[in-house]
TrEMBL record:
Domain RNA 2-O ribose methyltransferase substrate binding: 4-80
Protein keywords: Methyltransferase, Transferase
Single annotated GO MF: RNA binding
UniProt cross-references to InterPro entries, sorted A to Z: Alpha/beta_knot_MTases, Ribosomal_eL30-like_sf, rRNA_MeTrfase_TrmH, SpoU_MeTrfase, SpoU_subst-bd, tRNA_m1G_MTases_N
Spans traversing the lipid bilayer: none
Protein name: 23S rRNA (Guanosine(2251)-2'-O)-methyltransferase RlmB
Coiled-coil parts of chain: none
Endpoints of the signal sequence: none
Pfam families noted in UniProt: SpoU_methylase, SpoU_sub_bind
Cellular component aspect of the GO annotation: cytosol
Domain of life of the organism encoding this protein: Bacteria
Taxonomic classification: Bacteria, Bacillati, Actinomycetota, Coriobacteriia, Eggerthellales
Family in the record: Belongs to the class IV-like SAM-binding methyltransferase superfamily. RNA methyltransferase TrmH family.
Length: 248
Protein backbone atom coordinates (compact mmCIF):
# COMPACT_ATOMS: atom_id res chain seq x y z
CA UNK A 1 0.00 0.00 0.00
CA UNK A 2 1.39 3.40 -1.00
CA UNK A 3 2.17 6.08 1.59
CA UNK A 4 1.37 9.69 0.83
CA UNK A 5 2.48 13.03 2.20
CA UNK A 6 -0.24 15.66 2.11
CA UNK A 7 0.03 19.43 1.90
CA UNK A 8 2.48 21.96 0.53
CA UNK A 9 4.77 22.60 3.48
CA UNK A 10 5.07 18.92 4.51
CA UNK A 11 6.06 18.05 0.93
CA UNK A 12 8.62 20.87 0.82
CA UNK A 13 10.12 19.54 4.07
CA UNK A 14 10.11 15.98 2.73
CA UNK A 15 11.93 17.05 -0.42
CA UNK A 16 14.39 19.11 1.61
CA UNK A 17 15.26 16.15 3.86
CA UNK A 18 15.33 13.83 0.84
CA UNK A 19 12.58 11.46 1.86
CA UNK A 20 12.49 8.89 -0.99
CA UNK A 21 9.60 10.16 -3.12
CA UNK A 22 8.23 8.27 -6.10
CA UNK A 23 6.32 11.21 -7.56
CA UNK A 24 4.49 14.43 -6.72
CA UNK A 25 0.80 14.56 -7.62
CA UNK A 26 -0.44 18.05 -8.48
CA UNK A 27 -4.14 18.81 -8.88
CA UNK A 28 -5.07 20.12 -12.32
CA UNK A 29 -6.69 23.18 -10.74
CA UNK A 30 -4.01 23.84 -8.10
CA UNK A 31 -3.07 27.48 -7.61
CA UNK A 32 0.57 28.03 -8.62
CA UNK A 33 1.54 30.01 -5.55
CA UNK A 34 5.06 30.41 -4.12
CA UNK A 35 4.83 27.13 -2.18
CA UNK A 36 3.82 25.13 -5.23
CA UNK A 37 6.62 26.75 -7.22
CA UNK A 38 9.06 25.77 -4.45
CA UNK A 39 7.81 22.17 -4.67
CA UNK A 40 8.31 22.15 -8.42
CA UNK A 41 11.84 23.54 -8.11
CA UNK A 42 12.86 21.02 -5.47
CA UNK A 43 11.24 18.14 -7.37
CA UNK A 44 13.24 19.07 -10.46
CA UNK A 45 16.46 19.37 -8.44
CA UNK A 46 16.03 15.88 -6.97
CA UNK A 47 14.68 14.27 -10.18
CA UNK A 48 11.26 13.60 -8.69
CA UNK A 49 8.56 13.38 -11.40
CA UNK A 50 5.52 15.64 -11.10
CA UNK A 51 2.19 14.36 -12.42
CA UNK A 52 -0.85 16.56 -12.99
CA UNK A 53 -3.99 14.68 -11.94
CA UNK A 54 -7.68 15.48 -11.41
CA UNK A 55 -8.30 16.98 -7.97
CA UNK A 56 -10.92 14.30 -7.43
CA UNK A 57 -8.15 11.69 -7.41
CA UNK A 58 -6.36 13.48 -4.57
CA UNK A 59 -9.64 13.71 -2.65
CA UNK A 60 -10.06 9.93 -2.98
CA UNK A 61 -6.49 9.12 -1.94
CA UNK A 62 -6.26 11.64 0.91
CA UNK A 63 -6.59 10.31 4.46
CA UNK A 64 -7.05 13.67 6.15
CA UNK A 65 -8.46 15.85 3.39
CA UNK A 66 -5.61 18.33 3.85
CA UNK A 67 -3.74 17.87 0.58
CA UNK A 68 -4.12 21.53 -0.57
CA UNK A 69 -4.02 20.33 -4.17
CA UNK A 70 -0.72 18.49 -3.89
CA UNK A 71 0.42 15.12 -2.55
CA UNK A 72 3.63 13.09 -2.72
CA UNK A 73 3.77 9.32 -3.06
CA UNK A 74 6.74 7.92 -1.19
CA UNK A 75 8.88 4.97 -2.16
CA UNK A 76 8.73 1.96 0.19
CA UNK A 77 11.63 1.66 2.61
CA UNK A 78 13.85 -1.31 1.85
CA UNK A 79 14.28 -3.44 4.98
CA UNK A 80 17.18 -5.86 5.34
CA UNK A 81 17.36 -9.46 6.43
CA UNK A 82 18.60 -10.01 9.97
CA UNK A 83 21.62 -11.85 8.55
CA UNK A 84 22.79 -8.59 6.99
CA UNK A 85 22.85 -6.90 10.41
CA UNK A 86 24.64 -9.91 11.87
CA UNK A 87 27.33 -9.70 9.18
CA UNK A 88 27.69 -5.96 9.69
CA UNK A 89 28.08 -6.48 13.45
CA UNK A 90 30.73 -9.16 12.96
CA UNK A 91 32.70 -6.91 10.61
CA UNK A 92 32.34 -3.91 12.93
CA UNK A 93 33.52 -5.95 15.91
CA UNK A 94 36.59 -7.12 13.99
CA UNK A 95 37.51 -3.51 13.23
CA UNK A 96 36.65 -2.00 16.63
CA UNK A 97 38.18 -4.22 19.25
CA UNK A 98 35.28 -6.64 19.60
CA UNK A 99 32.55 -4.08 20.27
CA UNK A 100 29.26 -3.91 18.36
CA UNK A 101 25.76 -2.61 19.09
CA UNK A 102 22.40 -3.78 17.77
CA UNK A 103 19.19 -2.08 18.95
CA UNK A 104 16.00 -4.12 19.28
CA UNK A 105 12.69 -2.27 19.60
CA UNK A 106 9.89 -4.21 21.30
CA UNK A 107 6.75 -3.04 19.49
CA UNK A 108 7.29 0.71 19.39
CA UNK A 109 4.20 2.37 17.97
CA UNK A 110 5.41 5.83 16.97
CA UNK A 111 7.28 6.23 13.67
CA UNK A 112 8.77 9.49 14.90
CA UNK A 113 10.33 7.73 17.89
CA UNK A 114 11.72 5.12 15.51
CA UNK A 115 13.40 7.90 13.54
CA UNK A 116 14.81 9.61 16.62
CA UNK A 117 16.27 6.31 17.82
CA UNK A 118 17.74 5.65 14.37
CA UNK A 119 19.43 9.06 14.48
CA UNK A 120 21.15 8.28 17.78
CA UNK A 121 21.95 4.72 16.70
CA UNK A 122 23.69 5.98 13.57
CA UNK A 123 25.57 8.54 15.65
CA UNK A 124 27.08 5.96 18.02
CA UNK A 125 27.89 3.46 15.26
CA UNK A 126 25.17 0.89 15.86
CA UNK A 127 25.04 -1.87 13.25
CA UNK A 128 21.28 -1.96 12.84
CA UNK A 129 17.79 -1.80 14.29
CA UNK A 130 15.43 -4.76 14.69
CA UNK A 131 11.66 -4.29 14.80
CA UNK A 132 8.71 -6.72 14.72
CA UNK A 133 6.81 -7.01 11.46
CA UNK A 134 3.44 -6.76 13.21
CA UNK A 135 1.96 -4.26 15.70
CA UNK A 136 4.96 -1.99 15.37
CA UNK A 137 5.86 1.36 13.88
CA UNK A 138 7.49 1.14 10.46
CA UNK A 139 9.68 3.46 8.47
CA UNK A 140 7.62 6.24 6.88
CA UNK A 141 7.97 9.90 6.00
CA UNK A 142 7.90 11.06 9.63
CA UNK A 143 10.74 8.64 10.40
CA UNK A 144 12.99 10.34 7.87
CA UNK A 145 12.15 13.73 9.37
CA UNK A 146 12.77 12.77 13.02
CA UNK A 147 15.96 10.93 12.08
CA UNK A 148 17.26 13.95 10.13
CA UNK A 149 17.89 11.54 7.26
CA UNK A 150 19.91 9.07 9.36
CA UNK A 151 17.40 6.28 8.71
CA UNK A 152 18.70 6.13 5.14
CA UNK A 153 22.07 4.99 6.55
CA UNK A 154 20.77 2.64 9.26
CA UNK A 155 19.83 -0.94 8.34
CA UNK A 156 16.46 -1.98 9.75
CA UNK A 157 15.28 -5.59 9.89
CA UNK A 158 11.60 -6.46 10.31
CA UNK A 159 11.32 -9.89 11.86
CA UNK A 160 8.44 -12.21 12.82
CA UNK A 161 9.87 -13.14 16.22
CA UNK A 162 12.07 -10.98 18.45
CA UNK A 163 12.82 -13.85 20.84
CA UNK A 164 14.36 -15.89 18.03
CA UNK A 165 16.50 -12.93 16.96
CA UNK A 166 17.71 -12.45 20.54
CA UNK A 167 18.65 -16.15 20.68
CA UNK A 168 20.55 -15.83 17.36
CA UNK A 169 22.48 -12.85 18.63
CA UNK A 170 23.39 -14.69 21.84
CA UNK A 171 24.83 -17.48 19.69
CA UNK A 172 26.97 -14.85 17.96
CA UNK A 173 28.46 -13.58 21.19
CA UNK A 174 26.04 -10.80 22.09
CA UNK A 175 24.80 -10.03 25.58
CA UNK A 176 21.16 -8.92 25.61
CA UNK A 177 20.54 -5.85 27.77
CA UNK A 178 16.94 -4.85 28.36
CA UNK A 179 16.07 -1.33 29.47
CA UNK A 180 13.40 -1.45 32.16
CA UNK A 181 12.23 0.76 35.00
CA UNK A 182 11.89 -2.44 37.07
CA UNK A 183 15.61 -3.23 36.75
CA UNK A 184 17.71 -3.40 39.93
CA UNK A 185 20.91 -2.14 38.33
CA UNK A 186 21.64 1.40 37.19
CA UNK A 187 23.08 1.33 33.69
CA UNK A 188 26.35 2.96 34.85
CA UNK A 189 26.96 -0.11 37.01
CA UNK A 190 26.30 -2.64 34.24
CA UNK A 191 28.97 -4.10 31.97
CA UNK A 192 28.16 -2.96 28.43
CA UNK A 193 31.55 -3.72 26.93
CA UNK A 194 31.79 -5.74 23.74
CA UNK A 195 28.83 -7.00 21.73
CA UNK A 196 25.57 -5.71 23.15
CA UNK A 197 22.00 -5.97 21.89
CA UNK A 198 20.05 -3.17 23.60
CA UNK A 199 16.32 -3.86 23.90
CA UNK A 200 13.94 -0.92 24.32
CA UNK A 201 10.27 -1.34 25.14
CA UNK A 202 6.96 -0.02 23.95
CA UNK A 203 6.16 3.65 24.73
CA UNK A 204 3.29 2.79 27.08
CA UNK A 205 4.08 -0.60 28.58
CA UNK A 206 7.84 -1.01 28.27
CA UNK A 207 9.29 -4.46 27.63
CA UNK A 208 6.86 -7.32 27.22
CA UNK A 209 7.15 -10.17 29.71
CA UNK A 210 8.57 -12.72 27.27
CA UNK A 211 11.12 -10.26 25.90
CA UNK A 212 12.17 -9.25 29.40
CA UNK A 213 12.63 -12.87 30.42
CA UNK A 214 14.82 -13.47 27.36
CA UNK A 215 17.26 -10.69 28.25
CA UNK A 216 20.56 -11.58 29.92
CA UNK A 217 20.23 -8.60 32.27
CA UNK A 218 18.14 -5.50 32.82
CA UNK A 219 19.29 -1.92 33.32
CA UNK A 220 17.66 1.38 34.14
CA UNK A 221 18.64 5.03 33.99
CA UNK A 222 19.05 6.92 37.27
CA UNK A 223 16.35 9.47 37.99
CA UNK A 224 16.19 12.25 40.53
CA UNK A 225 13.36 14.37 39.17
CA UNK A 226 9.61 14.12 39.55
CA UNK A 227 8.81 12.82 36.04
CA UNK A 228 8.23 9.09 36.03
CA UNK A 229 10.34 8.28 32.97
CA UNK A 230 11.97 9.61 29.82
CA UNK A 231 10.54 9.32 26.35
CA UNK A 232 11.74 6.04 24.79
CA UNK A 233 13.81 7.90 22.20
CA UNK A 234 15.56 9.95 24.90
CA UNK A 235 16.14 6.88 27.05
CA UNK A 236 17.50 4.96 24.07
CA UNK A 237 19.96 7.75 23.34
CA UNK A 238 21.24 7.80 26.93
CA UNK A 239 21.67 4.01 26.94
CA UNK A 240 23.43 3.93 23.58
CA UNK A 241 25.87 6.62 24.60
CA UNK A 242 26.68 4.74 27.80
CA UNK A 243 27.54 1.73 25.62
CA UNK A 244 29.79 4.00 23.52
CA UNK A 245 31.39 5.52 26.64
CA UNK A 246 32.25 2.12 28.09
CA UNK A 247 33.72 0.96 24.80
CA UNK A 248 35.77 4.07 24.04
Amino acid sequence: MADYIEGKRPIIEALRTQVPIKCVLLADNAKRDSLVEDILRKAKRFDVPVKTVPRKLLDEVSDRGSHQGVMAETKPYVYVDITEIERAAASYADEHGGRALVVILDHLTDAGNLGAIARSAESVGACGLVIPNKRSARVEASTYKSSAGAIAHMPVARVPNLIQVMARLKERGFWIAGASEQADDIIWQANLKGKIALVMGNEAEGLSRVVKESCDFLVKLPQEGEVASLNVAQASTACMYEWLRQNS
